[in-house]
Amino acid sequence: MRTVLITGGTSGIGEAAARAFVAAGWRVIATGRRKERLDALVAELGTDKVHPAVFDVRDEAARDAALEALPAEFRAIDLLINNAGLALGTAPAQSASLDQWKTMIDTNVTALVSLTRKLLPALVERMGAIINISSVAATYPYTGGNVYGGTKAFVHQFSLGLRSDLAGTGVRVTSIEPGMVETEFTLVRTEGNQEASDKLYGGANPMTGEDIANTLLWVAQLPPHLNINTLELMPVSQSFAGFQVARS
């Protein structure tokens, strides 16, 4: 039985991925800050299938303590899914919050590379895999996307760099880059504005956390000689933004 560690397992894509991987016969280490949500996931899926690791990905000491406390049957990690991440604010750069920018960088970049580096030796030893969740914002800029898009562009490029460095080890690396997915993403970004979330997704038939979870599972279970480098997904209703023209 293979084991996957999924960061950001308390909602959205991460929570859906935990369910999908357990259904496919994997053990899941689900991480997140909200203990009650992880406990509910364990109650639903079983203590033998899911281990809850409660920590903020930005807190390296708490992360290391949680990894040290893993039960024996969950210690051999075959796949790391770096899913934890967030966008904060929608203001243009000149009026955006620097604190929000730093939080996005600390979460989407620093925490991701730190955990990846922590697990890399074991993943190399087991010829495992890494799936990083980037975004179409890595490629297509939009007003207010500024630092969020920059962090996701980093994730894309970091994934390619890992592929290059890990050549010959058997470790696979994939960057998954979704467009519009209806999760708590916009609620987090707007500090709980349900109206803004409803407006964004209303009538758009967006992708779901389950859609992306099934994609993650497909990538993870491909034959070991195949690597998906980058996979970009959008709902059919979403397309590329047009160019802006500022007129006098």
The ordered string of helix (H) and strand (E) elements is EHEHEHEHEHEEHHEHE
Total E-strand runs: 9
Number of individual domains:
1
Rg to the nearest angstrom? 18 Å
> Which geometry do the CA atoms define?
globular
State the helix count: 8
Strand content: 15-25%
Tell me about the largest β-sheet.
7 strands, parallel
- The CATH class designation is Alpha Beta
Tell me the name of the CATH homologous superfamily: NAD(P)-binding Rossmann-like Domain
Mean pLDDT metric: 96
Indicate the CATH topology. Answer: Rossmann fold
SSE-based structural type: alpha/beta
The span between the termini is 63 Å
Strand order of the largest sheet: 3-2-1-4-5-6-9
The second-level CATH architecture is 3-Layer(aba) Sandwich
Q: Could you give a short description of this structure?
A:
The chain is an alpha/beta fold and 248 residues long.
Protein architecture, described:
The chain is an alpha/beta fold and 248 residues long. It has one domain (3-233): Rossmann fold, CATH 3.40.50.720. The chain is built from eight helices and nine strands. It has helices at 12-23, 35-45, 60-68, 98-125, 146-165, 185-189, 194-201, 209-220; strands spanning 3-6, 27-32, 50-54, 79-82, 129-133, 172-178, 181-182, 207-208, 230-233. The chain has a seven-stranded parallel β-sheet, sandwiched between helices. Strands 7-8 form a two-stranded parallel ribbon. Helix 1 (12-23) crosses helix 8 and helix 4 runs parallel beside helix 5 (146-165). The longest helix is centred in the middle third of the chain and has 28 residues, at 98-125. The N and C termini lie far apart (63 Å).
